Every structure is written in structure tokens, then in C-alpha cells.
Amino acid sequence: MLNCARGQATTVSAVQEFARKTDNIVFLLQKPWVDRHGNPPSLPNFDLFTPVPTQPKCATYVKRTQGLTATTTFALGASFLGTTLTSTYQTTTTTFTLFNLYSPGRPEPLASILDNIQLPKNCILMGDFNAHHMWWQSTLPQSARTSAATHSIVNWLENNNFRLYNKPGILTYYLRNGGNFSTIDLCFSCGSIAQSILALAIDHDTTSDHSSITISLSLPHSPPPTSPPRRAWHKADWSAFASHIKSANMDLTNLSGKDDTLQAISNITGLIHKATDIAVPFRISGKRDEPWWNHSLTLAKQAVKQADRRARQNPTDTNGNDAQHKRSHWSTMVRQAKTVYRIKQLQSTSTKTVWRTIRHHNAHQKSIPPLEGHTDFKGKCKSLRDALFPAVNDQPRPPLPESFLTSKRDMQQHTRAVTIHEVQLAISHLKYGTSVGPDGISYTTLRHVHEAAPRLLALLFDACLRYAVHPPEWKTANCVIVPKPGKTTYSHPKSYRPI
After folding, report:
1. Measured by CB atoms within 10 angstroms of the end CB, which terminus of the chain is less buried, N or C?
2. Please, what sign has the CA dihedral across residues 132, 133, 139, 142?
3. What residue ranges do the domains of the chain occupy?
4. pTM summary value
5. At what angle do helices 443-452 and 454-466 cross, to 10 degrees?
6. pLDDT band at 84 (very low <50, low <70, confident <90, very high)
7. Domain 2-223 in CATH 3.40.50.150
């Protein structure tokens, strides 16, 4: 959990750093930076939950993993959010509600909504309470006071048997002007979920004026699925690929029916996969910097962390001003590095690619808002699938009238054979550089297959046309949802276009 104070660099770096660690499953933000559409940054393979569609003051990211489901069960205003998590593995199930709370500026907003929360048996409260109390601060700063709202919050916590996990006196908030520091980022729990909380850690090395809080949970969960490795196509050895295709000596001249054609399709697919394994290596997974990142930014970020550490260990006006200056300087360097990179990209582009370059730089990751009441990933997918791909094939079709077929002619004898030139012409008009489908065969791979064995694809396509064969593997594709421009709302599935 981290309060980002609306900083773009702080929000983006915190989200990226969280996503790099495979053990992290839930991430809470208060005062996140939002883009020009009012949305916080999205994360691949994570569901984003916010109390309001735009301009939220808190956000919760939940990892899409097997055995873990999340739904929004409480939302009030732009600052208060409750997400119910259910973790299941084999016969063990754990359910609890995680509250992400941000009290803007003072404790009164939080105190005013506590009576509206219907507490479940198991819950965890985390957030920026903006409240000062001896329970978690041990010694109050001179400028701090325990208000009536803070007493109301403490009484509510005690009456509901909440347990505090912060160690009293450990600071979590550092004023950038070098003023008094305090503890306002807190973590509580109630119910049996307390037995699953193993530890709480506070990390002061952030570029925000708040420290990040991490709790370790022991939850039943299945092993995380391993994502398939990606190919390094730019390192492909196409001569080795062609040699393997030629060495197979696959003969398709004697295909005599539908079964033979289906078997030939399976054999060719396996041959292409085997040749790809030989010729195309896999990418080496690891951390990859942004293209605009440079060594100066690395040094500046290290200087920011060192200055923040000095300001916390020795809270003087000089150290506080130095930390604020270095943090502002680093944010300026990030914006300048992005601007310089974009200018270089535009200068190196041509008249044919300039608009594609502009669209690439103006692209933004925008999360899909709740669709027809669905807030989780699977629910949104079902809503989009039902609206964009209605299951018309599941319903029985009426029989065709006898007069529908006016010709009894067998067209199989009049089918013209597919030629090598036709296959070459079709391959030359393919759009290269696109993503591969579920079978993992790219257009570039098909081109090299045709160059290595020109008759192979021609004979295969000819048999498919002659015996009316269209295998199920060729009917499956990956679908990406793109929002239609100019829509007044994007909470309806019809506001998106499948590609």
C-alpha cells in the first residue's frame, strides 16, 4: 500500500515495481495519478477496482491467478473501497474483505462513513487515516492533536475488536517541507484472517512523502500458472528452418479424402512447430528498461532515495529541502527524457509511418469500467462474449425447403487446382508484424515454409477445397477488445469492438 500524492512518476514507478515481484497479489493506492481520462494506470494480468469510474482517490489492484476471485462489495464516494477476496485451493477456502480507505486531509471524512460499513466476519483495513492518536504514534507531534473524529474512529475500531499491526512510533509520513513527521498510514484486521497475517513491513525508500506498507498473508492458493515463453524472432535461423522442412520430404499428392486431409494438416502443423523449435530461440526473461530510460535517471533516482533516507534519519529543514529538490529534479528529468525520446522518434519517421508513430506515443492503457454489474475479469469477459458473440449456433435451425437447392450438380469435379503462384500471391499480401494466434505460427513462418517447400501449402489448400475440410484449429483466434471512439459511456459491451 502506498499514498502516491497524485505524482505521476511515483504512481507509475510504484505500480511497475509491484508488478515485477511475482509473489505480490494485491496492491492498494491512495491518491494515485490519473491520466487525461481520469483513470489510474492499468496493469497487465491485474484487475483494477476503484470506488468511482473516474478520478478515484484510491485504487486496488488484484492479480488474476487461479483460485483467487475478487469483487467490489463496498464503495462510497471517491475515497473508500471494499473488495472481497476469495482464495481457494483444493478443499480449503479463505474469504475476507480488504478495505482501501483514504481520509482526505483530516480524519472527519473517515469518521463520518464508518457507520455505513457493514463489517464482515473477516476483514483488513488499510489506508491513510490522516488521524493522530497515541495508539499508533506513542508520542504525538507538537502540532498534532487528537480530534473528536479521531476518538470516534478509535472507539469504532475498539468496539469491533480490530487489531493494529503498525508498531507504535514507526513513522509513515514525512512532510516535504521538513516539518513534523507522523504515523497516519495504518493496517488493522478483525476476525480469523488475523491468523493468516504473518508480518508487516514498512519501506521508507519511496519517491512519495509516504512510506509503503506491505503485509505477508498465508492464503490457500494453487501454484501460479507459468506463462508460455516468447520467441526471439529477430534471432531466427531461417536456413536451419528450411533445411528441416525439406528433410521431412512430406508428400501430399495422394490425399484421397477428408480423413487424409485432416491428418496432413496435423502433420504439417507439427512439422512447422518442430522446425520453429530448431530455428527460433526463446527470449531471455528479465527486467527491461523503458526505451527512454538512461543512466542519468538511474543515478538521479538513487540520489532521491539517499536524500529521503537522510531526511528521515536526521529531520532538519536542510535535509528536507534537499530531498524535495532532488525529487522534483528527478521528476523533471523523467519528463524531459520522454520528450527527447519522442522527438527523436518523430524525426526518424517517414511520411508513411508518422501517424503510426503519433498513435503509438499517444496510446494509453485504459481499464475497462464495470460492465453490466461485472467488476472482475471473468465477469467482464462473459458480458462482452454474450453481447458481441451471441451463441446463435447453439439453437436448432429450421430445415431448408426442398426448393432451396436448385442445382444438383456435383461441383467437386469442376474445382480448379490451387497453384503455387496463387499461394505465393496470397502470402505476399499478408500483413507482417502482427501477433501470432493460438497455434503460434506467424505469417513470416508461413512465408519461409512456402519458400522451403513450394508445393506443400498448395497441395494442402487444394485438398481442403476439394474435400471441404476446415479444421477446428483454423477457426480459433485471439480476440482483443478496442473501445469505439466517441461513446458517451463505456459501461456497455456494445461500446467495444472485437479485433
Report:
1. C
2. positive
3. 2-223, 238-285+368-390+411-483, 295-362
4. 0.56
5. 110
6. very high
7. no
